[in-house]
Amino acid sequence: MKKFTLLYVDDEESNLLIFKDTFRRKYQIFTAISAKAGIGILDNNKIDLVLSDQRMPEMTGVEFLKYSLVNTQNQTGF
Predict the structure, then answer these.
(1) Of the candidates 76, 57, 75, 78, which has an alpha carbon nearest to the alpha carbon of residue 9?
(2) Residues 6 or more apart in contact with residue 40 via CB below 8 angstroms
(3) How confident is the model at residue 73 (pLDDT cuts 50, 70, 90)?
(4) Position 46 in a domain
(5) What would the pLDDT profile of 6-57 be if each residue is shown by its tens digit?
(6) Residue 13 CB: number of other CB atoms within 10 A?
(7) What are the CB-based long-range contacts (under 8 Å, 24+) for 47-50?
(8) Range(s) of the domain holding residue 36
(9) Torsion sign, CA atoms 4, 37, 50, 9
(10) Staple 16 to which of 1, 4, 31, 47, CB 3.0 to 4.6 Å?
(11) Taking the model in full, what pTM does it have?
(12) What pLDDT score was predicted for residue 63?
């Protein structure tokens, strides 16, 4: 069975590590330490679910989620 892919973006590395360790058995996990790194992952992978911290240095979580929605519509079919 194919694992769903999740992308979690957070500027706190400890949160990324805990998230990945918790969900890695059931899902294919991608993590990014910044919005810029998250954009790179989005551009090169099909991601089923995106989660993001709200307060990050480069852009807010809402801005990042808006980017992901606009730039991955062809991948998800929404």
Answers:
(1) 57
(2) 32
(3) low
(4) yes
(5) 999 998 999 999 999 999 999 999 999 998 999 899 999 999 998 887 887 7
(6) 10
(7) 47/5, 47/6, 47/7, 47/72, 47/75, 48/4, 48/5, 48/6, 48/76, 49/4, 49/5, 49/6, 49/7, 50/6, 50/7, 50/9
(8) 1-53
(9) positive
(10) 31
(11) 0.81
(12) 83
The SS3 call for residue 74 is: helix
pLDDT at 76: 47
Tell me the residue type at 31: T
Q: In this structure, what CATH number is given to the domain that contains residue 48?
A: 3.40.50.2300
Domain count, the chain: 1
Q: What is the band of 68 on the pLDDT scale with cuts at 50, 70, 90? A: confident
Question: Which comes out higher in pLDDT, residue 1 or 73?
Answer: 1
Residue 69: inside a domain: no
Tokens of 77: 């079919």
Does 1 fall in a domain?
yes
Task: Quote the longest CA-to-CA distance of the chain.
Answer: 37
The two three-digit tokens of residue 9, written as one number? 């973006």
